[in-house]
Amino acid sequence: MMRKPVVAVVGRPNVGKSTFFNKVAGKRISIVEDTPGVTRDRIYVDAEWLNYKFTMIDTGGIEPDSKDVILSQMREQAQIAIDTADVILFMIDGKSAYTTGDEEIALMLQRAGKPVILTVNKVDNALPNEFYYDYYNLGLGEPFLISAINVLGIGDLLDEIVQYFPKPSATEEEDETIHVAVIGKPNAGKSSLINSILGEQRVIVSEIAGTTRDAIDTPFQYNKDDYVFIDTAGIRRKSRVNESIEKYSILRALTAIERSDVCLLVLDASEGVTEQDKKIAGYAHEAGKGVIIVVNKWDLIEKDNYTFNQFEKLVRNELAYLQYAPILFVSAVTKQRLFKLLDTIKHVSTECAKRISTGLLNDVLNEAVMLTQPPSDKGKRLKIYYMTQASVKPPTFILFVNDQELAHFSYVRYIENFLRKNFDFVGTPIRFIVREKKEVKA
């Protein structure tokens, strides 16, 4: 399945990677919704340049010359970042000569076989500095001079980055395989769930939280439909990320979400909904992916007539922005409801790709407006002229209105709920773009 290219920004600490990352992030144009509980802290950003969409990741500082026990972990995390990326931006400090640490990282990158762009940061003008020609000794070609803090040279650098991306193909065939990312915090039973569905030990299972470092793709066929399950590393809370490598495990999970159609958010029934579950759910929601909430280890819960309803109410309250996501109570051990889970994955995948004709869409919109009038402010009332569907995965609609300022999020949410009432859209978020369209006077 096609996914957005990944650009990894690597280098030693304090060379300005995060400043560059934040400048690119600050230029992002995207739909932002004010939804309580959806995380905003990021080690990645979705960006766009010259009509190319890509994901940029901030990898933190690599210290290959460290003498302590962290050395091996640093090398491993660097390798994971290298393996994940399509293009590597290697940043060094332009206020000094390169270091032995820079040399070691450069050698590591040369062996990777990936496009590497040598970026010299903190250069306050476009002229080569006193160290410029020495940078060629790193063996990575022509250095790009930038000043991230002054936004100098960033456009030229982005031009170079996108040269390495695959060209969009209008003739590319649609992949009908359903890609399913299995996400959740460590030890929720993600690998066990996949193994139980597959009926064989295809993924290593361990009681040690965090066993799955990489995202593992496993093809599978059910009812003549092709699936790929993507088992991801458990995403830990920041306070528990004692090893820097866990940051890259999170990265693998995020890139798995990016190239999925449907995400299975696996909760541990014995723990309920944790803060970390909310954060992971936020990643999938913001990525616009189909979501199914899978409560695993349901066989371990003592039940009475109220247990199911109480737990479902708890999940709905804690994950309020995932009201559209179906909830399934399963057991990887007893295989309870696993076939129902597969049927639900298929259904949600279909809903994510659902298209509604403009005529039918506006019939429903007119009914919604008739039942509940749009809001007004200072004597001026919101008018919605018409609505059209712009895209799928997730279903995205454009509302043409007289004044964007009058399109309060609560009324847009009302329209969303009305669409769901008429067209379901089970398991998929819905996006809205509000555009002004001035009335034409006769």
From TrEMBL:
**Domain (EngA-type G): residue spans on this chain:** 5-169, 178-353
Q: Which UniProt keywords apply?
A: GTP-binding, Nucleotide-binding, Repeat, Ribosome biogenesis
Binding of GTP 1, residues: 11-18, 58-62, 121-124
Keyword Nucleotide-binding belongs to the record? yes
| Family assignment from sequence similarity | Belongs to the TRAFAC class TrmE-Era-EngA-EngB-Septin-like GTPase superfamily. EngA (Der) GTPase family.
Q: Which GO terms describe its molecular function?
A: GTP binding; ribosome binding
Report the transmembrane regions from the record: none
Function as written in the Swiss-Prot or TrEMBL entry: GTPase that plays an essential role in the late steps of ribosome biogenesis.
Read off the NCBIfam families from this record: GTPase_EngA, small_GTP
Assembly and interactions? Associates with the 50S ribosomal subunit.
Recorded protein name is GTPase Der
- Which biological processes are named by the entry's GO terms? ribosome biogenesis
